[in-house]
Write a structure and sequence with these properties.
Number of helices: 20
Order of helices and strands: HHHHHHHHHHHHHHHHHHHH
Strand content: under 5%
Helix content: over 70%
CATH class: Mainly Alpha
Largest sheet: none
Number of domains: 1
CATH topology: Growth Hormone, Chain: A
Oligomer: single chain
CATH superfamily: MFS general substrate transporter like domains
Length: 338
Amino acid sequence: MRHMKRDLINKVIPVIAYSIPTFVLLYPSFFVSFLTTTLQLSYWESFGLIGIPFLGRIVGSMFYQFFRRDTYRQSMVILGLLTLAQEITNIYILFPLRFFVGVLFGILTTYAVEQAVYTKNNILLGLTTSGWAIGWILAYLSYSLILSWVSISYLGIIIILLALFPTKMETSHMDLQEKKIRLTPSFISLIVYMSALTPAFVLEVVPNFLEREKLVWILFPSYLFSLFLYVFLPIIIGRFDSKLLKSGIVLIVLVTGLIAFLANPFFFLLFIPFGLAILSFIPKVLVEKGEEPKKVGVALNIASVMGLVIPVLSSLFSYFPEGILSFSMVALLILFLF
């Protein structure tokens, strides 16, 4: 019984390690009005504050390459402390603080993806990558129930408590020199992740977009549906592994995204779940193409620099979300078909 309980905890840890840092990273997306009025930031500065953790994420993923011990507990404790510190409303402190949130995000999500890939369990891999959707759900619920930038930061206490879970880390045990030489993701892996992550990063501007339309409620059912797709799509892809099936999913994301932004916001009910869930089968696709499991997490985090670029440019240029979404989905179509 004790062995079964520990085995269950070990399977839950990758999901926690992905979803909780995602929550800390994303909940400021619901406070753009607060940032522009109370802190008197411009829109591009507000989205810069929201997106700057994605630069830290790259640093975190690079640091993770050289860790030989299980990093879960230490990282969760530090993340909890940084969350508590986000109650500060001094922008000169918030910007570097958010950068370090990104560093912890990079460490924990790379850890989560690596552990999930090593299990070779499609369901666990889907649940782990669904941590992005779970993080969005937690951010939405926290915003809806608490409605306070300062009060949400106190959830850092719960994050610290989550560090108490026991873990069992799997690792490739490369030596330091080997890591320096070999742990650079392939160019194709970076392109695939940059394209596949675009819908998720476009979502950073969606809460503010829907708030103006008084349709923020659309987010919650969309995120819930995405959880189902995160588990369902890897199973279907694993069973049928069809280029046309993968391409069809990409087309759904492209078409529903363009309609949602340009004509009917209710199409976010489809764009959001499919746009998020497309990430659920990307790690397996890359591993099957010969990429190493540890490199998959690194590629994910390097490509995440677009998490800063996309929202900032979206606040400066009209129709940028639609343009970058079209370009990225066409790139994925070409890679999947050819």
